[in-house]
Amino acid sequence: MPGTTPDHPYSPAKRVGSTVYVSGALSVDADYQPVTGRREALDAALDRMTERLSTEGGTTADVVKLTYFVTDLSLREEANQQFAEKFAGTGAARTFLEVSSLPYGASVEIDAIADVADVPHSADSADSVDSAESAESAGNSDIANATATSGRTPMSADDQDYIDRVMTQWSAAEPELDVRPLDVFGRLHRVYLKYSRIMDQTCAEFNITQSDFEVLAALKRSGQGGPVAAAALAEEALVSTSDIPSQLHRLEDAGLIDRIRGFTDRSSVQVRLTPAGEELINRLAREHFTREAELLEGLSDNDREVLSDVLRRLSSSLGTPW
């Protein structure tokens, strides 16, 4: 089905002590797939998860977690309802559904099952935590050999993050495979997913999408409210030129922008913010940059400068358009 990744690999059910975890991921593009197709894709994904519960994890699970990626956050309610109905009879004590937006055509990599620490535990699951810690300790003796094989500086288990663990596992499984690029791109991808989720939440509070924010912000920056040529707006807003017409139509219907057509050339379109659009982007920008600053609180000013410089050079070396 267009716009979905129905064959995305799902994490198998995982038992840690007396707790069973199961997770899955699904990417659905709302703009390129009818509602019936979206529902069928989600339903099929949930069926695969329940099947794994019965074949690999027993008949019930303590924790069920699905990450559902969409390009339109209006699908959140639909996804939540289907998720609740599907797992109502599994006996799961806790279920979690994460809905995040995803640009059309982007790839999806999920590690929800691996990040067991991200799942809240109740007091009665302490034995599961102890079992997980024991299992982790048992594997620590292999870390030095695996990291040495990959050419990386050995580190203690306490200092390792998820990407470190993945690289260690790859190095142990395929010693000749150079997985060092994952050291960079794995973290970039995980940071992007976490950042994008927060962006979605911020924009949803203002009843717009992340791509809507990019368009409104581009109008605010480029023309101090407009007008800006529609053709130039796509590049400024970092969105596809094919998506711009429908997006501008939606923002115009919401009263946030005006489209002005040329007198002699009707195909020439200028775009500007309305007073309502100006007021919204001003409020949203303040909230947006406040939250971005909070995300960087763990870095010193020097760290931020170094990181910014390195990312700038990486972007330039890749020949990215923005």
Automatic annotation (TrEMBL):
Residues 181-316 form the HTH marR-type domain. Residues 122-138 have a biased composition (Low complexity). It comes from the Bacteria. The keyword Transcription applies. Residues 139-153 have a biased composition (Polar residues). This is Winged helix DNA-binding protein. One of its GO terms (molecular function) is DNA binding. Residues 122-158 are annotated as: Disordered. The keyword Mitochondrion does not apply. InterPro entries: HTH_MarR-typ (IPR000835), RutC-like_sf (IPR035959), WH-like_DNA-bd_sf (IPR036388), WH_DNA-bd_sf (IPR036390), YjgF/YER057c/UK114 (IPR006175). It holds the Pfam family Ribonuc_L-PSP. CDD domains: YjgF_YER057c_UK114_family. Keywords: DNA-binding, Transcription, Transcription regulation. It comes from Candidatus Corynebacterium faecigallinarum.
